[in-house]
Amino acid sequence: xxxxxxxxxxxxxxxxxxxxxxxxxxxxxxxxxxxxxxxxxxxxxxxxxxxxxxxxxxxxxxxxxxxxxxxxxxxxxxxxxxxxxxxxxxxxxxxxxxxxxxxxxxxxxxxxxxxxxxxxxxxxxxxxxxxxxxxxxxxxxxxxxxxxxxxxxxxxxxxxxxxxxxxxxxxxxxxxxxxxxxxxxxxxxxxxxxxxxxxxxxxxxxxxxxxxxxxxxxxxxxxxxxxxxxxxxxxxxxxxxxxxxxxxxxxxxxxxxxxxxxxxxxxxxxxxxxxxxxxxxxxxxxxxxxxxxxxxxxxxxxxxxxxxxxxxxxxxxxxxxxxxxxxxxxxxxxxxxxxxxxxxxxxxxxxxxxxxxxxxxxxxxxxxxxxxxxxxxxxxxxxxxxxxxxxxxxxxxxxxxxxxxxxxxxxxxxxxxxxxxxxxxxxxxxxxxxxxxxxxxxxxxxxxxxxxxxxxxxxxxxxxxxxxxxxxxxxxxxxxxxxxxxxxxxxxxxxxxxxxxxxxxxxxxxxxxxxxxxxxxxxxxxxxxxxxxxxxxxxxxxxxxxxxxxxxxxxxxxxxxxxxxxxxxxxxxxxxxxxxxxxxxxxxxxxxxxxxxxxxxxxxxxxxxxxxxxxxxxxxxxxxxxxxxxxxxxxxxxxxxxxxxxxxxxxxxxxxxxxxxxxxxxxxxxxxxxxxxxxxxxxxxxxxxxxxxxxxxxxxxxxxxxxxxxxxxxxxxxxxxxxxxxxxxxxxxxxxxxx
Length: 739
Fold this sequence. Notes:
Blueprint: E1 4-6, E2 15-25, E3 29-37, E4 41-45, E5 48-53, E6 63-71, E7 74-84, E8 99-105, E9 108-109, E10 113-119, E11 138-140, E12 162-163, E13 172-173, E14 180-185, E15 188-194, H1 205-210, E16 223-244, E17 249-255, E18 258-259, E19 262-263, E20 277-281, E21 285-290, E22 295-305, E23 312-322, E24 330-332, H2 336-351, E25 367-368, H3 369-383, H4 388-399, E26 410-411, H5 419-436, H6 439-457, E27 460-461, E28 464-465, H7 487-506, H8 512-541, H9 543-551, H10 558-570, H11 598-606, H12 611-626, H13 651-660, E29 663-665, E30 673-676, E31 685-691, E32 697-705, E33 708-714, E34 719-723, E35 729-731, E36 734-738
Parallel strand pairs: 6-13, 11-20, 30-34
Antiparallel strand pairs: 1-8, 1-12, 2-7, 2-10, 3-6, 3-8, 4-5, 4-7, 8-9, 14-23, 15-16, 16-21, 16-22, 16-23, 17-20, 17-22, 18-19, 24-31, 25-26, 27-28, 29-30, 31-32, 32-33, 33-36, 34-35
Helix pairs in contact: 2-12, 2-13, 3-4, 3-5, 3-13, 4-5, 4-6, 5-6, 5-7, 6-7, 7-8, 7-9, 8-9, 9-10, 11-13
């Protein structure tokens, strides 16, 4: 990779380097700065923060971020603070360390003279944050050159970096807007004296933080602590300006919830040791302490140690990292709880949206197809115009395919291969078309789709698809059937075959390749379900298989199936508080429901006139339980011991936006085409806003009257509306309908 560099050859894992790049402009004008790196970095231009990154990428296709800025003529300096993790994470695979940067004026590359220095302030490899993420920061800032990022800093004694440091291909532009920084000024929630109780500090940093004495009745105080509530779980970096004596220790710890009133810096369900703590040693005087790498949590606790002369807090901020600004979409129905549920879904989605749509901002920051392909894309399309995070996830899944062609269920870092997610990937590509009308993506991913389906088809036998090598995830608490054929897995496979047929048709290709095995599999599944019904009724078919089979039109007695699904749901926690809890990812019990699988189940009720049942579930399970104890983002499952910020639990948001406001995108058929399917249950009225595909917002309102329902639309640009399959009509400005 040309224009890539690093401070020196053969660096140790968890090491940091500083880079300064000097360039001159002969005249004022706009320049473009492009950058990518092997791991996390922050960049400044003439001492002003410029960007942070990298945007995660597949090693097969590095992607640079870019920023355009107008500069005066003369000398300018780019400065990079870059990390070499030396380990694979959920975000990026391990690769030799590098920073790549180009400066362009128009089409011409501006020469940049780079200098570098290995940063000696980090005590390397003290602890991983957890097995999914990188390292904690353990920095003695007395060893960091003050003001090194500024234009006027003297770097005469810095050396030249090693050039062409990366063996990766030349980077290409990322099709994303810049990830944003949202500053939040913090107000202290609680504070008090502090004394250490466990040593040495580096032996068990998370434990040492958690067990410090925050009352100091018996021990002499040697510092202070402060606690802050960020309002909801956020990904970002604390940035505290403090006035401290030299040698004072500053530690930041984050958690998604409080444990006995304090931050516990252990990350639950990490599959290994965890430590959500960062540590600094002060150089003395006024100084801003800010971590390099963003981390997740809702509650921030700060410990100041060895500050017997006192500590002055000058400014307390949290710099949130996020792709989306607050949404201008809206939902109102006169029920404050449903309105709050809708809003929490949008905000949980925002909390999980950075350079990728991730599962969770604290534990993993992983890009899973199951999170993107299901709830994530639907919430994105209900609240925002920009679905490029979803598009990029589908592309990176294909780039990171297994050797046999199976697309990755987790990518681009620490890739995982889940056949059920490979099935959902094909479905998601067609859903992306429905929401965007983007047929170019169909053409781009067609060959990877063929390889994906070929990898799956290799496991086809006369009795159905046998268990494909990989983790066949259906839902938490789902137990795969004994034997080589799993019904739920085959139902997902059928869904993908039908999606491939639609895909081929959209590209003008023959669909027989997909239609024939689809019909064959559908008949096999009907017989398999019938045999289960004969043996033990709906209980023998099971919750997940019954729902997926109905979604695919394989159930004759739909009313009976819905009654069974409703009874099952009501028999599970949190509807029945005495029911078993989903307390273990490896556990199994038939009496379980999850917010994730509700994405598949609830539309079955809504489409068949049972919206009031669904609204009742939203109020009880999401409202009364999930929002209990002041929670402001969705829990991963209906149990508080899992992640407290998981956007895949947010199906109420998109279901309320689509079914209660009534507009369902059909952009794959025609640009700006919506199907009007209103399913409000017994709600008396509703209003809200949905994104217009060309920009701006569509305002919807309706209310019941004595003679029927009055439905009103207002749109900034024309849309086409189809009611009950009739010929679409155009709405250019406003329109009122009697329904």
